[in-house]
Amino acid sequence: MKFEQIMKPDQWILSQTFTVKVEEIPQVIGLTFMKLGGFIQEQGIQILSTPFVSYKNMDENGGLDESAIEMEVGFPVAEKVKNAAEIESDSYFLPSYKALSALYVGRYDDMTEPYFAMMDEIKKIGGKFSGISYEYYLSDEEIPEEQQETIMELVYE
Fold it and tell me: What whole-number distance in Å separates Cα of residue 47 and Cα of residue 13?
């Protein structure tokens, strides 16, 4: 797996946040992408890039409390969405950040090892993991699981 150090640009976000158990993640992601995607289409909102899921409360080793995972599901958008509250969502400005990025191809359930490898790489370059990760899903559900493509980003200082 090839890693790249990136500086993510400032961006507006339309998203929903949740605290969930690990087994609830797939259902939350699917329903939220459909809800936000429908709202975006209906409102004519311009999407800037791929939808994402962010995990907010990871420890320094990449671990999560599987009974209370803080996650955000959203889309980068062109500008603030003033009526986001209509669908119990938030629209905010996300400042730029440094991240280690990698393209992962494979089953979602097998992403643990790539996360650990990225944590090690952050330490090797003298960085400190911030506890926040982003996953950008490039494939749709029709693609076989072992061929799914995901961009993984780990935010660091």
Answer: 9
Question: According to DSSP H, which parts of 7-153 are helical?
Answer: 25-43, 112-124
pLDDT at 66: 82
pLDDT per position as a tens digit, 128-152: 999 999 999 998 878 898 999 999 9
CA dist 134 and 13 (Å) reads: 13
The low-confidence residues of the chain, meaning pLDDT below 70, are none
Answer yes or no: are the C-beta atoms of 102 and 151 closer than 8 Å. yes
CA–CA separation, 139 vs 148, rounded Å? 6
User: 17 has which bridge partners?
Assistant: 72
CATH number for 3-156: choose from 3.10.290.10, 1.20.120.450, 3.20.170.30, 3.20.80.10.
3.20.80.10
Six-digit token string for 18: 């949740």
Sign of the C-alpha dihedral, residues 76, 82, 86, 89? positive
Residue type, 95: P
